[in-house]
Amino acid sequence: MYLALARKYRPQRFADLIGQASISKTLQNSIAMNKVYPALIFSGMKGVGKTSSARILAKALNCEKGPAIEPCNQCQTCIEITEDNSADYMEIDGASNNGVNEVRSLRETVKYKPLKNRYRIVVIDEVHMLSNAAWNALLKTVEEPPEHTIFIMATTDFHKIPATIVSRCQHFEFKRIPFEVIKQVLKDICQKEAIKVSDYALYLISRSAEGSLRDAKKILDQAIAIANGDVKDDDVVAILGIIAEETFIALTRNVFTQDRKGIIEQVNQLIERGTDLRFFYTEYLRFIRDVIVIKSIPDSERLHNLNPENVAVIREIVKDVSEVELLRFFNAVKELEQTIRNTEHPSIILEYMFLKLSYFSALVSIEDYLKRLRDARPGAAVAAPAHTPPAPVVAAPRAVEAPAPRSGEADWLPELKARVDREKPRMASVLTSSRLELRGNTLFIEVAAQLENAWKMMKENRAYLNQLAQELAGRELGLEIVLKEGQAKDDGERVVQELKNDKKIKSLKDKIKGSVIAVESVKGGKDA
């Protein structure tokens, strides 16, 4: 009969335990000092070594060459415990023996000394399944067990164990086994079994196991069976039901090349294959995360989860794409998470998402757009020489001479815009879109009607603008900053506000439940 890999390669010594070094060391020290606690709780997720540790501890305590920090696995006692044939080693399923009668029977059994070994080891698996009556019946035995009995309770649901039991036991929490450790263990098993398997296939199996070494061995067993020998990537993809990485790559290439027909065809292929589109969305989000890592970090081999054979292709696809654009790309995909999860038509949302992403390369950021506007202004050409200091022979006379009056708009208004651009860039964008006109000895700056906040900012900097204008013009100048059609606004705004705040008008408005839409001046009649 075939022996499953999980049983064939089950740890037989503390040194063989994977990912639980601190627990192994604590148990070994307890054995060496003869201070093994009479009641232990092993908690943790499935497949991380709880019952294996209990079995190893039983062998170490009862080994004919011990008690020893490592069992010999060669004496009769170790062999019997390994093969589950020992009368003094009991593994009980807590799910099917969860009643008070079973616990009472267990209490009667542990009263007597072991038949052969030093200790009777009682392992209750999935102990959280016991009933309340069973817990109450077990309470006193766990607190004061017979001298020759040790209780080991294993559970995947620690919080369901009553606090009265926990307080009487020593608790060991088993951790998830790291992904890289699982991958290396599977690789070693494949070498011992003379089975060829790619690193990518091992990665897929290790990731799907989610920290459980037993689950990883089970999946590897299934992959070996379906492949009838050497394990291929496609076999693992078929078993796990995951989406091939090439599908993500093809869709991403279509997005960046704006091949929208290809995008629709790819989504249709997913539908025809019966792919779970919500699962596909989640996996694509992970794929984009890995693409960002590859783009941003030079040596990122251990930081992403992609097939190493595809990394060169992915780098080629995103070579002209900036990191900021990829982050914007990721954010746009993430925003649709709730929509994809709740919609009845995920295919339509996926098509929309990829078509939307295909337009991203044509978009320009606000910062770049403002920079282009500044570069396109006539004053930009004047601004450049300002960084170069004037020649000494020219600088000396300018220090003592009074500025000569300048009158034409073309002479100094562009220089005014250039100075503002250098000294107050935020105001420069408003000044660029405003109309500047010199009327006699007054400079008028007319701001667009919809830019009221910008108009207020300009008025706050009125003194700065007036001083700068006089300095460049070489004479006294007045300054007026107005909104477009600002005369009517300035003349009528005060009157309109007074009328809106009038007590009689407010009272009438409340009575008829109306509102003031406009205030108009009416001419004619007797009172005109």
Question: Termini separation (Å)?
Answer: 113 Å
- Structural class, by secondary structure, is alpha/beta
Detail the poorly predicted runs.
380-405, 523-528
- Write down the overall geometry: elongated
The Rg value, from CA coordinates, equals: 40 Å
- Helical residue percent? 40-55%
Let me know the number of strands: 8
Average pLDDT rating:
80
Count of alpha/pi helices: 27
Write the layout of secondary structure elements.
Elements: H1 5-8, H2 21-32, E1 39-43, H3 50-62, H4 76-82, E2 89-93, H5 100-110, E3 120-125, H6 132-143, E4 149-155, H7 163-166, E5 170-173, H8 179-192, H9 199-209, H10 213-227, H11 233-240, H12 245-256, H13 260-272, H14 277-296, H15 311-317, H16 323-334, H17 337-342, H18 346-358, H19 366-376, H20 379-383, H21 392-400, H22 409-423, H23 425-432, E6 435-439, E7 442-447, H24 452-460, H25 462-473, E8 478-483, H26 486-500, H27 503-511
Parallel strand pairs: 1-4, 1-5, 2-3, 3-4, 7-8
Antiparallel strand pairs: 6-7
Description:
The longest helix has 20 residues, at about 275-295. Helix 10 packs across helix 11. The chain is elongated and about 115 Å long. It is built from 27 helices and 8 strands. With about 525 residues, the chain is α/β, with parallel strands linked by helices. The strands form 2 sheets. It has a 5-stranded parallel sheet, covered by helices on one side. The chain has a 3-stranded mixed sheet with strand order 6-7-8, with helices on both faces. The model is unreliable at about 380-405 and about 525-528 (pLDDT under 50). The protein has helices at about 5-10, 20-30, 50-60, 75-80, 100-110, 130-145, 165, 180-190, 200-210, 215-225, 235-240, 245-255, 260-270, 275-295, 310-315, 325-335, 335-340, 345-360, 365-375, 380-385, 390-400, 410-425, 425-430, 450-460, 460-475, 485-500, 505-510, and strands at about 40-45, 90-95, 120-125, 150-155, 170-175, 435-440, 440-445, 480-485.
